[in-house]
Design a protein that fits this description.
By secondary structure, the protein is α+β, with helices and mostly antiparallel strands. The chain has one domain: Nucleoside Triphosphate Pyrophosphohydrolase (Alpha-Beta Complex). It contains five helices and eleven strands, in the order H-H-H-E-E-E-E-H-E-E-E-E-E-E-E-H. The strands form two sheets. Strands 1, 2, 3, 4, 5, 6, 7 and 8 form an eight-stranded mixed β-sheet that branches. A three-stranded antiparallel β-sheet has the order 9-10-11. Helix 1 packs across helix 5. It is globular. The two termini are 13 Å apart.
C-alpha cells in the first residue's frame, strides 16, 4: 500500500497545488494573502520544513514536533521539523533535511524528497517557509534533540483529514492575542503556518488517493 500511495502522491505533487485557497482555510482571523511581488520587496528570511512520511501499522504516518517553552516567538508551538536557511546549506531543500536530522535524528540519505507544498509567508517574523515532502521506506529510529524539541508526535497521515477544526484565541509572534482556526492533535493546539500546511496537505493527500496508476 505504501509504495503505491507514495507514487500517487509524487504524481499529484507534480501537478498544480491547491495553494493559498487550501492554506487560508486555517489562517488566523484578519490575515490576508500577500502577493509574491510584495513578499519579494520585504526580502524575507528563508526557512524550510520537512513533512516526513513513512509506513507504520498498515498506514502512512508523519511527524510533528513541539518546541520547548522559551522566551521566543515559537515557544511551545507545534511544527514540522525544520528551521532557517544557513549559509552553509546548498539550497533550501538541504535546509529542511539538515534541520530534520538536527531535531529528530533522521539522516538525509534515508529520505527521498518527492515534492513540496506551496511556500507560506509569515508576516510577523518575515519568514518565507518552504514545506518539502519526503518518504522513508520504514519507520525511522528517532533521536530527539532536547534543546530544540520538547516532544515528537507521530501522527497517522490519513487521520489528519478527520481531525476536528476548532477556534481558539492564541498569542501570535508579535505578542497580540488573535482568533484562529486550529487543530487539536494529541491534546496540543496546532495553528498558524503549521495548520495552514496541514490544510493544503490534506487536500493533496485526498486527491492523490484518487489517481489511477
Amino acid at each position: 500500500m505504501s509504495t503505491r500511495f507514495f507514487e500517487q502522491l509524487r504524481i499529484r505533487l507534480q501537478q498544480p497545488l491547491p495553494g493559498k485557497e487550501a492554506q487560508f482555510l486555517m489562517a488566523p482571523a484578519g490575515r490576508q494573502p500577500v502577493q509574491p511581488s510584495e513578499i519579494k520587496k520585504y526580502n524575507p528570511r528563508r526557512s524550510a520544513v520537512l513533512i516526513v512520511l513513512f509506513p507504520f501499522e498498515s498506514s502512512i504516518f508523519t511527524l510533528l514536533i513541539q518546541r520547548p517553552v522559551y522566551n521566543g516567538v515559537h515557544s511551545g508551538q507545534v511544527a514540522f521539523p525544520g528551521g532557517k536557511f544557513e549559509e552553509t546549506d546548498i539550497d533550501i531543500q538541504q535546509t529542511a533535511l539538515r534541520e530534520t536530522y538536527e531535531e529528530v535524528g533522521i539522516t538525509d540519505n534515508t529520505i527521498t524528497i518527492i515534492g513540496k507544498l506551496t511556500d507560506i509567508y509569515i508576516p510577523p517574523s518575515n519568514f518565507l517557509v518552504s514545506p518539502f515532502i519526503g518518504f522513508l521506506g520504514k519507520q525511522p529510529e528517532l533521536v530527539m534533540n532536547g534543546y530544540e524539541v520538547q516532544k515528537i508526535i507521530t501522527v497517522d497521515l490519513f487521520g489528519l483529514n478527520n481531525v476536528a477544526i476548532m477556534e481558539k484565541t492564541v498569542t501570535n509572534s508579535s505578542g497580540y492575542k488573535i482568533k484562529t482556526p486550529c487543530y487539536e492533535i494529541e491534546g496540543l493546539i496546532v495553528w498558524g503556518a503549521t495548520a495552514m500546511m496541514i490544510s493544503e496537505l490534506n487536500v493533496v493527500v485526498k486527491e492523490a488517493k484518487l489517481i489511477e496508476l
